[in-house]
Amino acid sequence: MSSVSQPDISVCIANYNGGELVLECLDSAFAQQGGFRIEVLVHDDASSDGSPERIRARFPNARVIASEANCGFCISNNRMAAAASGRYLLLLNNDAVLRPGSLQRLLRFAEEGHQDCILGLPQYAMADGALVDRGYRTDPFLNPIPMLDPQTHEVGVATGACLWIPRQTWDEVGGFPPWFESVAEDIFLCLAARLLGHRVFVLDGPGFDHWVGKQLGGGKLVDGGLQTTVRRRALSERNKTLTMLCCYPWPALACILPIHALLLAIEACALLVSGAGAATVLAIYAPLPRQLWARRRQARALRRSLRQRRTAPPATLFAFTRWIPQKLAMLLRHGFPAIGN
What we know:
Radius of gyration: 19 Å
Number of helices: 12
Oligomer: single chain
CATH topology of the largest domain: Spore Coat Polysaccharide Biosynthesis Protein SpsA, Chain A
Distance between the termini: 40 Å
Shape: globular
Helix content: 40-55%
Number of strands: 16
Largest sheet: 5 strands, mixed
């Protein structure tokens, strides 16, 4: 379906060196059928693989926003949202592929009384078609826990790899904090939206296929073992902590933050013992206190803004919390992660 003026849906694809993957992603977006109008925006984050030229040549109806410097996933999506004109935004990873009927399913559910809700779809692994999640709940430290029950539709977090959000809700939340860069931005967005009275659902329906961890590396199971990277792990710990600081009520922070800090220290020691190497462990955990201090003013301002506009009780944030630490459960099940550069 080609894009026209005044679209119903703006499909926003953040791209960095997407190669063939982003072309497959765009194919799946333009192939969507239904009684709606779409526009497709691609923010190219200073790719070096010729992505912008290939996208323009193959998809002349796609609007390419080319950045001169690499700015990260959050700023890329913020820029596309600012340029988009659809009533709804679909944030789509460049290594994800929509299954036929996905946009029609999302739009129908939204228009049936869920115009202010964040929506997601079942996520399947591109490699083997296995179900990855139907949204997430989290532990108290905001580690995501996949939800797989087809009977459960309201969730704590919808994955940012394919995330539907009404324009009005996006504007109310304020988009992604630009200083997050990447990783856990979907957790922040869903928690902040829930504080402001919005709900999060993952629908039955076609879903999407995703090369999980293909772009940033890690964040997946390979041959029964966990794999991650230094950069992903460092960004994840920083941004989950910042999300707690921005969203959690003070009584919860007073209890959870000291435990969180202790567990991170134990985790760092355990990785050292497991053979991860001092340089790797330091690269993940040592910058965290300095980075949190550097972002204290932005986090304080964002927290104040959310608190002033909050319509849901703070306890709402813990409606989808499982209190057993997810990292402990994963350690017992899969052992220590392999950490790449």
